[in-house]
Amino acid sequence: MIKINENYQKLQASYLFSDIAKRVAAYQEANSGQNIIKLGIGDVTRALPDACVKAFHAAVDEMASDSSFHGYGPEQGYDFLREAIAQGDFQARGANVEADEIFVSDGAKCDSANFQEIFSTDVTVAIPDPVYPVYIDTNVMAGRTGDWSEGRYAGIVYLDATKENGFIPDLPSEPVDLIYLCFPNNPTGATATKAQLKQWVDYARKNKALILFDAAYEAFVQDRSLPRSIYEVEGAREVAIEFRSFSKTAGFTGTRCAYTVVPKECMAYTESAEAVSVNTLWNRRHTTKFNSVSYPVQRAAEAVYSAEGQAQVKELVSFYLNNAKYIRGKMEALGFGCIGGENSPYTWIDGKSDSWTFFDKLLSEAGVVCTPGAGFGTCGERYIRISAFNSFENVVEAMDRIKKALA
Ligand SMILES: *Cc1c(COP(=O)(O)O)cnc(C)c1O
Questions:
Q1: Same domain, 100 and 187
Q2: Which of 253, 271, 306 is the last residue of a domain?
Q3: Into how many domains does the chain fold?
Q4: Considering 73, 158, 197, 336, which has the largest number of Cβ atoms within 10 A of its Cβ?
């Protein structure tokens, strides 16, 4: 008899985006003609940078001729891309990361989901609340949790991000081994200072723990005093993995390219406390289970690092940041407490009521779709997330309608 992985039975069906879609469809049916503005799902809306499109086309043409055709590439990514990344994203900013510490993949979602599998199922995992749900669900699937009750899984150490701690979780009071952090944060838009990250790095060094740092939104950091990479913090190379993606920074959500940094100093331990290189373990896992990102996509990603590509990506990020700033400004003017919206495409808004009630009000009275914070964890109950991924005209119109609806 074929038996299932029983851990999957513990998973809570995520109704968040399907619930939103249902409510939106019902509203649309009852109000035909009303155009709904979607500031909900975290997907980009603007075209790929021209430099990427050109490189993408040229690489497709190479594939069309026997003499320049590419078959399987190296699983970890082509050297041209790994070197461009190490140089452009790290060395140029004074962070010491080498090309052979970069693992190119088809998404930070898969990487942040898969990384946990190289560690024991006995490790204690610390995960923020609210959170990008991938970190939790993959640990449930792996069997690191007990059952679900009152919005949380037994066995996970939840790190609350609340108004009281400025949406930067405090260090846990009990020992943990694997720590997930994400800055600029999805969903809250909060950013962490170097000093705040240093506390986590120091904690991990002291406790032989490991940090999985999700930096998918690093390009949105404009404040020069804020770190864009955890490797700007001293000691982080010993205890931190960093996930990055071209999705939000260069509009690659539908093109698919990302990478994970695994410094050679990072160690994990055997039962007898013998140190094992995490880079070696991940290399083994990645080369066994993954067969590289397509050649044209890696060429398109490489073009991000050209002078033309850098200017275009900067413009793209500024465009969304301008939307975010507008959203935060308007919501604050209406008297709502906000975090994010600066150095982040997301604004996290204290709706002063439960988040689904506020969601329904914005939908039915303003025709605007946001994301209810409760979908990201128990600490999101009073909040909504508004995304800056839309046209400026739509953002202005949405804020105008919200103002009228709430007046
Ligand atoms: C969008 C996002 C990612 C990126 O996912 P890809 O699979 O690279 O598209 C990773 N982490 C967070 C928190 C995100 O919001």
A1: yes
A2: 306
A3: 2
A4: 197
